[in-house]
Automatic annotation (TrEMBL):
Keywords: Endonuclease, Hydrolase, Nuclease. It comes from Phormidium yuhuli AB48. Gene3D superfamilies: tt1808, chain A. This is Uma2 family endonuclease. CDD domains: DUF820-like.
């Protein structure tokens, strides 16, 4: 990720983003242009969103793709690959959400370290967040971090297993998540 060389306030970032032809993320005063994703990245995201769509039979929860911003105070504005919010306060703004239950990122070699490190640190600031999901696009592997009374714990799912999203009461077969990709076991 390469930052645009200037310090930005959240308000300046939002004005920039309204006029931008490409999406940018904001973190602690720096603005980063977002790179395009691979075919595997796109397909995995679509498969995950399809599972969410089939799971939610009422309007209590909403799910979003990487086109809707997620915000925490003045610290960050990110475009997660997929996220779910069940908080009615998130219905007030069509462009920015603040109370996610689950966030999922499809990792690439260039984003893996950031997704596991600084971005996860930022997401942990969100009191509503119950699960953070990291999906590999190099091998069939999904890591789900869950918030509990003792802090955060993780569990890994691999080829042939079900991925459990406890916060949503949902299980997705690994084969369904990676359907249509060339990602190997």
């Amino acid at each position: 990720m390469v930052a645009i060389p200037a310090g930005f306030s959240p308000e300046e970032y939002l004005r920039l983003e309204e006029q931008a032809l490409t999406r940018h993320e904001f973190r602690c005063g720096l603005v980063y242009a977002m790179a395009g994703g691979s075919a595997n990245h796109n397909r995995i995201t679509i498969n995950l969103l399809t599972a969410f769509n089939l799971h939610f039979t009422d309007d209590r929860c909403q799910f979003f793709s990487g086109d809707v911003k997620l915000n925490y105070a003045e610290r960050f504005y990110y475009y997660p690959d997929a996220f779910v919010t069940c908080d009615p306060r998130d219905r007030e703004d069509s462009y920015i959400k603040r109370y996610p239950t689950l966030i999922a990122e499809v990792m690439s070699p260039s984003t893996s370290e950031f997704d596991r490190g600084s971005k996860f640190e930022d997401y942990r600031c969100l009191a509503s967040l119950e699960e953070y999901v990291l999906i590999s696009q190099e091998v069939q592997r999904v890591e789900v971090f869950s918030r509990g009374v003792e802090g955060w714990s993780s569990r890994m799912s691999a080829l042939g297993e079900q991925v459990r999203f406890d916060s949503l009461g949902l299980e997705v077969a690994m084969g369904d998540l990676y359907r249509g990709t060339d990602v190997l076991a």
